[in-house]
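User: Design a sequence. Structure:
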């Protein structure tokens, strides 16, 4: 939901369409960007119904404007995905499903999950992954607090720190030691900091996977 990750989504979508279609092709899309400060305040206050209502209004605007497919560009706010889906007629491409599909295709069964504290500690995302017969591991409490603080205090503000990258690498190493066969980068901003070279096991960049699936569906639509 931060503009940092929204820009990442937009860039990836355009790059993928250009790769698939060639020439001067770019993505045909409608982008509705919210004020992330409002969303963060609702998250911090546990006011998820209000956050869901805000995103329902945004989704309806996108639908009315003519979109054929809705992509919610955030892992954490998939907590209210059901609320959004119930309010619109167009399909919502669920980020956790596209991620689970990639993990399963790689032949893995146990993944570590990095994301906001909401994503790591609540069940809405972990259960969706588990529904695809995956075992989901999350970091210990202190590591979860570190991962969360880097997202909100740094990455959402455009700060990419080598110190934080090294700290994330240590968190990943501990997840691998606990049995993780792969690591889900379950927050759109984490891909601004972490890539495959930072992990001894496969990483699953949820933003890229989400955009790839969206572009596949969009280009397949008559």
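Assistant: Done.
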């Amino acid at each position: 939901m931060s503009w940092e990750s929204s820009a990442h989504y937009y860039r990836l979508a355009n790059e993928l369409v250009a790769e698939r279609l060639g020439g001067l092709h770019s993505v045909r899309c409608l982008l509705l960007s919210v004020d992330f400060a409002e969303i963060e305040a609702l998250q911090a206050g546990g006011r998820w119904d209000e956050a869901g209502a805000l995103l329902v209004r945004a989704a309806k605007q996108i639908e009315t404007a003519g979109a054929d497919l809705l992509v919610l560009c955030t892992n954490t706010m998939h907590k209210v995905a059901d609320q959004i889906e119930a309010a619109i007629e167009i399909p919502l491409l669920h980020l956790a499903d596209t991620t689970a599909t990639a993990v399963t295709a790689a032949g893995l069964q146990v993944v570590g999950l990095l994301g906001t504290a909401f994503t790591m500690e609540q069940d809405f995302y972990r259960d969706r992954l588990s529904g695809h017969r995956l075992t989901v591991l999350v970091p210990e409490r202190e590591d979860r607090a570190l991962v969360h603080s880097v997202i909100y205090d740094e990455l959402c503000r455009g700060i990419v720190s080598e110190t934080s990258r090294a700290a994330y690498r240590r968190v990943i190493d501990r997840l691998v030691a606990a049995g993780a066969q792969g690591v889900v980068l379950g927050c759109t901003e984490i891909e601004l900091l972490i890539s495959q070279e930072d992990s001894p096991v496969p990483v699953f960049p949820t933003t890229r996977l989400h955009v790839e699936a969206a572009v596949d569906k969009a280009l397949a639509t008559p």
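The longest strand covers residues 110-114. The longest helix spans residues 3-21.
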